[in-house]
Design brief:
single chain; mainly beta; Maltoporin, Chain A; 22-stranded antiparallel barrel; five-stranded mixed sheet; about 5% helix; globular
Length: about 950
């Protein structure tokens, strides 16, 4: 098994050594101009409060070290952090259209306290200090995707972003953030440049598992000019990103079986009652366009307008094989038992008879279109600043899915290992079975889905600031904001089970291919290739497949009487409206004492009115009735902060705030989505493995509330060098988590229902340690001063009372799902005028994915809730840049160099015994291209 522990030790040792040595050396040398801390020069503020969208400090020429891309971006990010009223970390593009990574979400993974998940060749699911409950803004205006509360940050290509600001504490003038904070995406604007600017990039991206390469690029044009009515500027930036990925997974079933007498001569041992292989393959395309206009009629007024278009297009081709091992007539021989478990557990056996292996081939098309238009004005004159801003946002996501379900025509002998050597997880093979004969595959059924989700909003705000000429109150602030938000989701699906007809692939109007690829770096494992229908032929002939399915269903089944995509199901539909009215007031203060002190005191009040409409089903009469849920509440969100400037280099901050996160609209949805049938329902309806899965919302959810306490020690020993320690605590009420339970249902028998529930109280305590510096030391030779390091570490101790269903099994405050206790980043940098390099390592410790109910035959039915845990993992990335002439840079990037798989494990009894649930192999991404600037 590949290990990265030696890499952990080496990288951490290097970071600690540099972190300890550099400040000490800095104190013993005479500071050059590059080492002298200096207040940043802020660019002109936009239509929001100047703190709502901080501007990077202007580039400064240093006497001893030339300011280049990475060094300049670190200086700008450091200036934002040092001078901000909030506790904030930023990522600043090191060049026009060049964040440190390929997408915004990947860059955020380098920020102290930020954690992400990785799949499909990209980073997603951004969390701050272990929490996903974020508010996202674009140039200070709230932005979201479809019906969600926040935007998909992976939809922002690096070419369209100037900087990313992660607010970990709030002040009253900011759009109310979630309990995790607020992330603001900053775009370029024409007044950022002195005159005309043309720049762009063109690069080829290659992913090793899919063995596919695609062209990506972006282009920016900006200009500003003087007119008789003042100065104007216009900017447009377009980007095109595409990648084709293949993620490969081998997995054990979530359910543990028990060997029965008559199945084996060693009954009573436990084992996962199925094994499987999954290929998640697809093509993701993200075109985007943003434009900005600025007009400054005179020294007092500024008008600006912003336009954003984001698009997402995916064409997925998913393949799944599942080998069931739970039939009563299955025989087990050559049993290999594991040692050290509380209950006997099989490492492997040979299975004869029983149920046939089965699977599906899915063709999924999805797309998102998001638009935002914003218009704002700012007036400033003699200590008075007034700004007003309006914005319109519209976002829609849609998906269509067609699945061919199949089963083997016979049941071959199966040799199964549940914990294989190397990376762990299952391995299996079939005896005397031809996986490449289409006659060996039976058409089991056809699944059809049509899904749409959307959202739009109108937002308006007015802010007022007054800066008095004297006194300890340095600024008075007040403002109002209003939002009107609509959200909707519609879903229609149908499934026709026709396995008894005995049709094979040869009887279907589809083209055939073989699955394969993936599992890079893995030896052995399950079969990697088998016959499957091609993605395009399923989609192209979907109506013919619907007709075949309809002709073989019983006459009273009318699900497939109509062709085309299925109609929306009222039970799987909701619409929502939310109106929020906000007012805030805040003062900033400063005392010019022996130790200068400044800070802020404020209050933000938000009144929210929500209405969610759906449909309910009367279980006794099977009738459908429209339902509506209304709610109205007011949040009072105070904030207080103080900063002690002990010297030009050292400052201490403290902040106390209250934040809240509204439930997502889909979490409030009173409707229920019924998923495709799973498990043994088709072959053994009385089996414990027969269930119908479903998802629903919970209109009775309450907002999450958090009281937040932050303390930060910050030492800035040069303009690109700093060390900081931050301590934080969050006291949270009402954590929302998905809970899965088995419930009786008059139509489906057993319904495995997943729905959100509020938990009780919870707390998060943690620390963040960060160090950043180039080695700008007089004691070092000039070549050594081109090296730099960024290192940060985050510790989070997080627990929360679970919802009442889970709390019966897990009392107290178990770990919050999604939160790693430990995570760190280490970035080693080298930069000089012609060549630069960056080696970045990101690691997070194991974390609970979710608490799942054990549906265990050994316990006589549904059992306790126990955790599914993802194991620790690290990611190593490399970036090389060569600049032969000032206007052109050749760039080479590699993401996920190590290629270590993602593994998770399932606890299956109260004694704590576990087994590997999944082993997933992700893409390694290579990019080669050129950036240009004129």
């Amino acid at each position: 098994m590949r290990t990265t522990r030696s890499i952990h030790a080496t990288l951490l040792a290097s970071a600690i050594a540099i972190a300890l040595v550099t400040p000490a050396l800095a104190q013993d040398t005479t500071q050059s101009a590059s080492d002298t801390p200096e207040q940043s020069t802020q660019a002109a503020p936009d239509t929001q409060s100047s703190q709502a969208t901080p501007q990077a400090g202007t580039a400064t020429t240093m006497d001893t070290v030339q300011v280049l891309g990475m060094r300049e971006s670190l200086q700008s990010a450091q200036a934002i952090k040092r001078d901000s009223e909030q506790i904030i970390d930023s990522v600043v593009a090191q060049d026009i259209g060049k964040l440190p990574d390929i997408t915004a979400s990947a860059s955020l993974a380098r920020v102290t306290g930020v954690q992400v998940t990785r799949a499909a060749g990209e980073a997603a699911d951004v969390q701050v200090r272990g929490l996903p409950n974020l508010t996202t803004t674009y140039n200070g205006r709230e932005l979201f995707t479809a019906e969600n509360r926040s935007v998909a940050l992976q939809d922002f290509p690096a070419g369209g972003v100037s900087g990313l600001d992660v607010y970990k504490s709030s002040t009253a003038e900011l759009v109310e953030g979630g309990i995790a904070g607020l992330i603001n995406v900053r775009s370029r604007r024409p007044f950022d440049f002195e005159g005309r600017e043309m720049s762009g990039s063109l690069n080829t991206v290659y992913l090793d598992q899919s063995d596919k390469a695609d062209l990506n690029g972006n282009f920016l044009f900006s200009d500003r000019w003087d007119t008789s009515v003042g100065e104007m500027g216009f900017l447009v930036n377009a980007a095109w990103n595409r990648l084709r990925f293949l993620d490969s997974t081998r997995e054990n079933s979530l359910v543990m079986g028990v060997a029965q007498p008559g199945q084996t001569d060693q009954p009573g041992f436990r084992y996962p009652d199925g094994v499987g292989t999954f290929y998640g393959q697809g093509r993701r395309t993200r075109p985007s366009l943003n434009a900005a206009f600025q007009w400054k009629p005179n020294e007092h007024w500024e008008i600006n307008a912003d336009f954003l278009y984001q698009a997402f297009r995916s064409r997925d081709n998913d393949s799944y094989m599942f080998v069931p091992l739970y039939s009563a007539d299955m025989q087990m021989s050559d049993v290999d038992l594991a040692e050290g478990n509380q209950a006997p557990q099989a490492r492997g056996f040979t299975a004869t008879g029983g149920l046939r292996p089965e699977g599906y081939q899915a063709s999924v098309d999805a797309k998102t279109d998001t638009y935002q238009f914003g218009l704002g004005a700012v007036y400033q004159n003699e200590g008075v600043r007034w700004s007003s801003d309006i914005a319109f946002t519209d976002s829609e996501y849609s998906l269509t899915q067609n699945n061919i379900d199949w089963a083997f025509a016979s049941t071959p002998v199966r040799d199964v290992q549940f914990e294989s050597t190397g990376d762990g997880g299952p391995s299996y093979s079939f005896r005397d079975f031809n996986l490449f004969d289409p006659a060996n595959y039976i058409f089991r059924g056809f699944f059809d889905r049509n899904y749409m989700a959307g959202g739009n909003d109108f937002q308006a705000r007015t802010d007022f600031e007054f800066t008095p000429e004297s006194g300890f109150i340095t600024k008075y602030q007040a403002g109002v904001r209003y939002t009107d938000r609509d959200a909707e989701r519609h879903n229609g699906e149908r499934y026709g089970y026709i396995e008894s007809a005995g049709l094979t692939y040869l009887d279907l109007p589809v083209g055939l291919t073989t699955t394969g690829g993936g599992f890079e770096g893995s030896s052995g494992g399950p079969p990697r290739k088998w016959i499957s229908a091609t993605r395009n032929s399923i989609r192209r002939n979907a109506d013919q497949l619907r007709q075949i399915t309809d002709s073989l269903l019983p006459a009273d089944n009318t699900d497939f009487d109509t062709l085309g995509d299925p109609a929306y199901n009222d039970l799987q539909t909701f619409t929502a409206n939310e109106k929020a009215s906000t007012a805030y007031a805040q003062v900033r203060y400063a005392f010019d004492t022996a130790i200068p002190i400044d800070g802020s005191l404020g209050m933000r009040a938000v009144q929210t009115e929500t209405q969610v409409n759906g449909t309910s089903r009367d279980e006794s009469t099977n009738t459908f009735t429209p339902v509506s849920s209304r709610n109205k509440y007011t949040d009072y969100l105070p904030n207080a902060s103080i900063r002690f400037r002990l010297s030009d280099e050292f400052q201490i901050r403290a902040a106390a705030t209250k934040t809240r996160t509204r439930p997502n609209f889909d979490q409030l949805n009173p409707s229920t989505i019924i998923n495709p049938r799973q498990g043994a329902c088709n072959t053994d309806p009385t089996s414990i493995n027969c269930f119908q899965s479903a998802n629903s919302g919970n209109p009775n959810l309450s907002p999450l509330e958090s009281k937040n306490y932050d303390l930060s020690f910050e030492y800035y020993f040069s303009r690109s060098g700093s060390a900081s320690v931050a301590l934080f605590r969050r006291d949270v009420q009402g954590f929302i988590a998905n809970v899965t339970t088995d419930q009786p249902d008059p139509i489906y028998g057993t319904l495995r229902l997943t729905r959100p529930e509020n938990g009780g109280e919870g707390s998060m305590e943690g620390a963040e340690i960060a160090f950043t510096s180039f080695l700008d030391l007089d004691a070092l030779p000039p070549w050594a001063r081109n090296f730099g390091v960024q290192a940060n570490y985050t510790y989070i101790d997080a627990g929360a009372e679970q919802g009442p269903t889970v709390a019966e099994s897990i009392p107290g405050e178990p770990r919050i799902p999604g939160v790693s206790k430990n995570s760190y980043n280490l970035v080693l940098m080298y930069e000089q005028p012609v060549f630069s390099a960056r080696l970045a390592y990101n690691w997070r410790s194991k974390w609970v994915q979710e608490y799942l109910q054990i549906n265990d035959p050994a316990l006589g039915g549904p059992g306790p809730f126990l955790p599914l845990v993802q194991d620790e993992r690290g990611t190593l990335d490399l970036s090389l840049n060569y600049t032969p002439i000032p206007s052109m840079t050749i760039a080479f990037d590699v993401n996920n160099i190590l290629g270590d798989p993602i593994t998770n494990s399932r606890t299956y009894n109260v004694e704590g015994d576990t087994y590997t649930r999944q082993v997933k192999y992700l893409e390694t991404l290579y990019s080669l291209g050129v950036r240009f600037r004129f």
